[in-house]
Amino acid sequence: MTVAIYAGSFDPITNGHVAIIRSGLVAFEKIVVAGLNNPNKTSLFSVDERLEMIREAFPGDDRLEVDQFEGLLVHYCQARGVRVVLRGLRAVADFEQEIQMANMNRHMSRDIETFFVMAADYFFVSSSHVKEAASLGGRIEGTVPDGVAARLRAKFAT
Ligand code: ADP
């Protein structure tokens, strides 16, 4: 079975992430969405909340597995026996960072291939901008799944 790992912070998952996962499902039989559990990085949502929101965005899809990982992505891929990493590209800024990361991962593990999907409709969406907009009472509907928008509003309700 062709399996790809799509890793990220997903703090929280946005419609941009959802679109990349849907594109990935066209090419791969299964996608493992892996939320980074990094105790040194402060996140708005706990790792459990972040994984729950990913699951809620894909109800009943058995081609999707939601998991968490710590440490290096290449080590997680090796532990899972998966050779494909899926990433999304929004803008030139993403490209520079992603090409470095993909090549660093290749340097650490020759077995791992990174596949990129171009962002389309949601190229302007990032978790950090959505959080900032939500914290200031801005309109976030349409940038994140409905359940995520509700949770963001609840987080910032005064
Ligand atoms: P990190 O915090 O590790 O950068 P993210 O969750 O922000 O992780 O992103 C994970 C992956 O999803 C990256 O490849 C990123 O470029 C991609 N991505 C994030 N937002 C979008 C979007 N709106 N459209 C397409 N790809 C995206």
Describe this structure in words.
There is one protein chain. Strands 3-2-1-4-5 form a 5-stranded parallel sheet. The protein is of the alpha/beta class. Helix content is 44%, strand content 20%. The mean pLDDT is 96. It starts with a strand and ends with a helix. It has 6 helices and 5 strands. Helix 1 links the parallel strand 1 and strand 2. The radius of gyration is 15 Å and the shape is globular. The structure holds adenosine-5'-diphosphate (ADP). Adenosine-5'-diphosphate binds next to helix 1 and strand 4.
Give the topology, please.
Elements lengths: L2 E6 L6 H13 L2 E7 L10 H11 L6 E6 L3 H8 L3 E6 L2 H17 L4 E6 L8 H9 L10 H11 L2
Question: How would you summarize this macromolecular structure in one to three sentences?
Answer:
With 158 residues, the protein is an alpha/beta fold. The chain has helices spanning 15-27, 47-57, 73-80, 92-108, 127-135, 146-156; strands at residues 3-8, 30-36, 64-69, 84-89, 113-118. Helices cover 44% and strands 20% of the residues.
Binned, the helix content reads: 40-55%
Q: Tell me the number of helical segments per DSSP (H or I, 4 or more residues long).
A: 6
Number of strands: 5
The best one-word shape is globular
| Radius of gyration from the alpha-carbon trace, in angstroms | 15 Å
- Uncertain segments: none
Mean of residue pLDDT?
96
Structural classification: alpha/beta
- Could you tell me which ligands this complex binds, including any ions or cofactors? adenosine-5'-diphosphate
Order of helices and strands: EHEHEHEHEHH
Taking strands numbered 1, 2, ... along the chain, how are they ordered across the largest sheet? 3-2-1-4-5
Largest sheet: 5 strands, parallel
Could you give the distance between the termini? 48 Å
Report the portion of residues in β strands.
15-25%
